Amino acid sequence: MKKQIVLTSLLLNTCLFGGSALADATREYGRVLAGLDSKNLIVTERSLLNQARNGDNNAQLALAKMYEGNKDDARTAKWYIRSANNGNAEAQFQLGLLYIDGELVEEDPETGLDWLKSAAAQGHFHAKVTHESLKNEDFFIGC
Fold first, then answer.
1. 39 pLDDT tier (thresholds 50, 70, 90)
2. 77: nearest Cα among 59, 60, 57
3. Most buried residue, 32, 53, 114, 116, by most Cβ within 10 Å?
4. pLDDT at 125
5. Angstrom distances, CA of residue 5 to CA of 29, 63, 65, 104
């Protein structure tokens, strides 16, 4: 049970604190995940699902990242979309990138740029930089 609590905490902290904290938490998440058995993973997933279904956009983002790591495209997209729609800047950033690249969702650079803009408006540093660099790019004109 302790490992499950640590994993849930790491997933939520990863989603709350972007930047270098995100990279550190992701490495720690991988280390803890490697030490868990399938029962603990199921308990962690259930815990996050309960929180996500109750509207917790950080739990929604954590599920998206968890499913992304498991290569579950449909669930990954579903939870990124829910979290982004509920105002999570990191989810908005990630969803923007997915739309721009056409990964997990149909390619739509304009929608992707809108999601980046939403995340940037909340102060998401990487979204600001990416949005500024892409909004003037010619590929958005159909190249």
1. confident
2. 60
3. 116
4. 92
5. 12, 15, 17, 29
At what angle are helices 89-101 and 125-134 packed, to 10 degrees? 30
Please indicate, yes or no, whether residues 72 and 95 belong to a single structural domain of this protein.
Answer: no
In a domain, 40, yes or no: yes
In a domain, 142, yes or no: no
Q: Are residues 69 and 8 in the same domain?
A: yes
Considering the domain architecture, whether residues 3 and 64 belong to the same structural domain is answered as: yes
- Asked whether 15 and 58 are in contact (CB, 8 A), the reply is yes
Task: Please count the structural domains in the chain.
Answer: 2
Residue 56 within a domain: yes
Residue 72 and residue 5 share a domain? yes
| Model pTM score | 0.73
For residue 29, pLDDT over 90 is answered with: no
Domain extent at residue 37: 1-78
Residue 87's contacts (CB-CB under 8 Å, 6 or more residues apart) are 57, 122
Angle (nearest 5°) at CA 64 between 59 and 66:
90
